[in-house]
TrEMBL record:
Start and end residues of each Beta-ketoacyl-[acyl-carrier-protein] synthase III C-terminal domain: 254-352
Spans through the membrane: none
Example of a GO MF term: beta-ketoacyl-acyl-carrier-protein synthase III activity
Enzyme class per UniProt: transferase
Keyword Transcription: no
Transferase keyword on record: yes
Enzyme Commission code: 2.3.1.180
Beta-ketoacyl-[acyl-carrier-protein] synthase III N-terminal domain ranges (all copies): 129-201
Taxonomic lineage from the root: Bacteria, Pseudomonadati, Bacteroidota, Flavobacteriia, Flavobacteriales
The protein's name in its UniProt record: Beta-ketoacyl-acyl-carrier-protein synthase III
Keywords recorded for this protein, A-Z: Acyltransferase, Transferase
Signal sequence, start to end: none
Organism: Chryseobacterium gleum ATCC 35910
Length: 353
C-alpha cells in the first residue's frame, strides 16, 4: 500500500514587493540603534546571501485561510475528486489568520475548519485540523496523512500549507525582508495500482538548545508597544544548525528508501535562503562522495521569498504544471523533499512519481 499525490494547487499572491519597497524603512539593531549601512547596501547584501529580489504579499482583504482555500480548491480540481470523499483536511501554518492592520492571531476555529466550510463539504467525518511545526509543517502534514492512509484510517487527504508572514514581521528588523505570503496544497490517496508514492520519511525536533533559534520577540524600535511580538530569528545559528543536521537527515531518509544517490532526480527543499540551501545540498552530496548534479534543486526564492510552509507545495505545483523553466518531473522520477524550521524541526520524505 502506497500514498500517492493525485492533485496539486497553489496560490501566489499578486502583489509583488521588490527590494526597493524597503528603501525608506528605518532598520535598527537589537539595541534600537539605527544601522550604519544605508538601505541600498542592506538590500544588496540580502540579495547576495538569500537570493531574494522580490516577494509576494497577500491582498489587504485576505487572511491565511483565504490563501489556503484557493490553493486547496485548485488541488481538488487538479485531482478531479469529489471533495466529499476527503477523510482529512490538514492545514499547516504557524500564525493563524492575522488581519491586515492588526497584530492579533485568530486560530479559533482552526484554519482547516474554515477551509472545509469554504469548500462547502457536508461530510461530518471529514476531519479538519491544523499543524504548527514551523516551516516543515506541510511536509509533516503529508507524513501524518501518509500514516492515516497506511493505517487504514483514511483513503484520501488534503494537505495545505499557507502563511501571511508579512503580517507578523517587525518593520525595523532587516530580517523582515526575507518573509513572504503564499499557499500550496496537495491531495493524497491510497495507491494499490503501481509503485508511485511515499517510499520513506523522517522527522526530528531539536529542542534542548535550539528551541529559540526562531521565536517571537519585541520590536527593535523601543518606542513601539513592548507587549506586541514579532517573528525573530538568530540567522547565524539557524544556518550552522541546518548545515550540520539537515544533510544527515536527508541521507538517512534516502538510505531508508532503498534508492541510491545516483537514482535521485530532484531535491525539493524549503526555500529559506539560497546560499543555505545550496550549502545543504552540497554537503548532502559530499556525504556520498559525489558532486552535485546540474539542475537537481529548483529555486523560486528569488521572486517569491520565504513563505514558510507554502514554499514546498507551491514549488511542487509549479514544476508539475510546467510553470518552471528547466525543471520537470516525469513518471518514475525519485524526488527528495526536505525542510527545516522553527522548533527546531527537520523532516524529509522520498517520493517516486
Amino acid at each position: 500500500m502506497m500514498t500517492k499525490i493525485i492533485g496539486v494547487g497553489n496560490y501566489i499572491p499578486s502583489e509583488t514587493i521588490t527590494n526597493l519597497f524597503f528603501d525608506k524603512h528605518i532598520f535598527l539593531n537589537e539595541e534600537g540603534v539605527v544601522l550604519k549601512e544605508n538601505n541600498a547596501s542592506i538590500t544588496d547584501k540580502l540579495k547576495k546571501i538569500t537570493g531574494i529580489e522580490e516577494r509576494r504579499y497577500a491582498d489587504n482583504t485576505q487572511v491565511t485561510s483565504d490563501l489556503g482555500y484557493i490553493a486547496a480548491k485548485k488541488a481538488i480540481e487538479n485531482s478531479e475528486i469529489d471533495p466529499e470523499t476527503l477523510d482529512y483536511i490538514i492545514f499547516a501554518h504557524n500564525f493563524g489568520d492575522v488581519r491586515f492592520g492588526t497584530v492579533q492571531s485568530d486560530m479559533v476555529p482552526s484554519l482547516a475548519a474554515r477551509v472545509k466550510h469554504l469548500l462547502g463539504i457536508r461530510n461530518n467525518f471529514c476531519v479538519a485540523y491544523d499543524v504548527l511545526f514551523g516551516c516543515p509543517g506541510w511536509i509533516e502534514g503529508v507524513i501524518q496523512a501518509h500514516a492515516f492512509i497506511r493505517s487504514g484510517m483514511a483513503k484520501r487527504c488534503l494537505v495545505i500549507g499557507a502563511e501571511t508572514l508579512s503580517r507578523v514581521v517587525d518593520i525595523h528588523d532587516r530580517d523582515s525582508m526575507i518573509y513572504a505570503d503564499g499557499a500550496g496544497a496537495a491531495v493524497l490517496e491510497v495507491n494499490n495500482d503501481d509503485d508511485s508514492g511515499i517510499k520513506a520519511h523522517l522527522s526530528a525536533s531539536y529542542t534542548l538548545e535550539e528551541k529559540d533559534y526562531l521565536y517571537f520577540g519585541k520590536s527593535y524600535n523601543n518606542e513601539r508597544c513592548p507587549d506586541t511580538r514579532y517573528i525573530k530569528m538568530d540567522g547565524r545559528k539557524i544556518y550552522e544548525f541546518a548545515l550540520v543536521n539537515v544533510p544527515d537527515a536527508m541521507k538517512k531518509c534516502l538510505d531508508n528508501s532503498g534508492y541510491s544517490i545516483e537514482q535521485l532526480n530532484k531535491i525539493i527543499i524549503h526555500q529559506a535562503n539560497e546560499k543555505m540551501d545550496e550549502a545543504i545540498v552540497n554537503r548532502f552530496y559530499q556525504l556520498y562522495g559525489k558532486p552535485v548534479p546540474e539542475n537537481i534543486m529548483p529555486m523560486v526564492i528569488h521572486k517569491l521569498g520565504n513563505s514558510s510552509v507554502a514554499t514546498i507545495p507551491s514549488l511542487l505545483t509549479m514544476i508539475l504544471q510546467d510553470e518552471l523553466e528547466h525543471h520537470k518531473i516525469s513518471k518514475g522520477d525519485i524526488v527528495l523533499f526536505a525542510s527545516v524550521g522553527a522548533g527546531m524541526n527537520i523532516n524529509a520524505f522520498v517520493y517516486q512519481f
